[in-house]
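So, can you check what follows?
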Amino acid sequence: MKKNAFDPVRARIWALTGLMGLCLLAFAGVMYYTQILHGEENRAKSLASNAASETVEASRGIITDRNGKVLVSNRLTYTLIFSAKDFENDQDLNAAILRLTDLCTENNTVWNDTLPLSKTAPYSYTDAQDSEGFALFLKNKSIPYSKLSQVTPTLQPDRFMAKLRELFKIDSSYTDDQARTIAGVRYELAVKSLTDAQYVFADDVSVELISQTADGQYQGVSTGTSSARVYNTEYAAHVLGRLSPIYYEDWVGDPENGVTGYRDMEGYSMNSLVGREGAEKAFESYLHGTKGTRIITTNEEGKITGELYTKEPQPGGTVALTLDIDVQEDTEKSLAQTIEAMTAKDGIVRGGAAVVVGVGSGEVLAMASYPTYNLSTFDQDYSKLVSDTVGTPLLNRAIGGAYAPGSTFKPCTAVAALESGIITPSSTIVDRGVYDYYKSPQPRCWIYSSYGSTHGRVNVSEAITVSCNYFFYELGSRMTIEMLNETANGLGLGVPTGIELTEKVGWVTDEASKKAAYGETGVNSQITAGDRVLAAIGQAENRFSPLQLCVYASTLANKGTRMKATFLSRVVASDYSSLIKENSPEIMSQMEIASTTYNTYIEGMRLVIAGGEGTARSHFGGPKDLDTFPVAVCGKTGTAQHSSGGSDHGAFICFAPMEDPEIAVAVYGEKAAHGATLAAVAEDILRAYFAMEAASEVNAFENQAS
């Protein structure tokens, strides 16, 4: 049988196969065109139709002590972000705001509201943290829905609220409290729009609240992630510091005076948290990471369908402080116990400070200020803390207080007199009780005022030991104020310490400090013989911080070499892969102090503790029990009068060991009456420090033996 040349079935199969091949080829071409040639463009268009870009804050770096103990860390938190862009009118926006705030109230969640107006009627103005932002809000004309020229801060609070209701079209169906709630959120939206920043409606919200807002029923709401600080110690609050939002004045800076704002810095958004005080502020550049960006996609119902990071956030570095948290704990406990014991006796509320510094490095091992506070509960305690104007717990007295040093200044006077040749180590002066070099007021030696006796004939070492005012009055009368002040500055008094935290720099007695105290004109602005005499014993206008006193003690121990005070040990990358910075000791200044001078004041300061007439002889083991203390300590007590009246302030400085000083300590107590009282705090600190050092040496030996 002859085969048919044309098979219609086969033809149809081939035709269909060809058609399918053409379709596949066309499909492949379209895929190539859309995904390969124009993939990025089409992806962006697709995302843009149902996605929003948002900033992702970087995790802040952690803070440790010198031994790697974590002091401040982070935990992951969720945030609620609110936007007004998808609302067609004010009525819908206001209703959505109230719906969201009601939900937060049900969940005991606080939202961010900095409108400086009380939350309930009758209204009153409150202190605005971000005063510049509020001022900008009042005068800005660029917000589309505003008539801000009608709103002024000079209005009565109730009228101001009425203007806000009109401005934001909050109708009369809302109660006064509801209207204030809506106005607070609208204010935040307005201020944030001026800087193109997202409005983080609420921080650190619960997972339950996130799930309630993620069902698409809360228009304008999206979620984000952030981190909150975790404080792993209850100590060193003043040193560690705290975070705060960026205020508007911080964001824009002060261009006219060359101050850069955060908006010009890499890694910041208006919603960033920044260091406001302490180490958080001082080491902001290391701790703050680099922000990231992600795109969130949603469906028509508002549910999140995906996210894409276009820029990964980079965490901040790990900052190791010079603090030894164990020494810090001992310092704070001893300072608190000593001051509280004084207050229990007389009922006088007082404050104090203590500082511990490494002699050869300038590293601050501990810095305590009393009273203090707990960083973990700072927000809850804030109203109480800020309203305590007597104890002022928010003040870091160690670097923010300026006090008369009293007799702790006398070694400085001795150095000035010895180095200038005014006296020699063997020179003596007879204490006559009342110093009659000038008549008004007529100074007296403390022992004459207290007991009617004198120290008799003493040399400079003995004068330091017994703290003879008369001896140093005479030295003050023999030298110029410039000579005394130059020595004080060289030893670290009245000049910046170099510390990274914001410090109040003290001052010496000179015409500038006299004018500041008594006015620009008249005899009060001139340095008199009486000023020189009183300045020589640490009175007159001499005012120094406890940190400066500690640097001074360290410089005395270091034979005139003054080290820069520092809190920074090192900075490493967040994953510990690299060393970003390692701090090295830095010499700030160097005085030439002769060995004879050094030995003279060292002898006097040692006998303050070890001598039978030493003003701190009841501490550090002796003079009767010198073997009970592990090292030889050199110290100086100080008692200082002050303008506020009442009991005198007390001060104590010391360093140890005498032969090869390692650490210096300064303790100051407001209205503590006597510096010797505060020697107990220094004794506790040195006992703890040298006990730890001894234990460390034993452990090292055991490790080597094994």
Summary: DSSP finds 24 helices and 21 strands in the chain. Residues 675-705 form the longest helix (31 residues). The two ends are 104 Å apart (CA to CA).
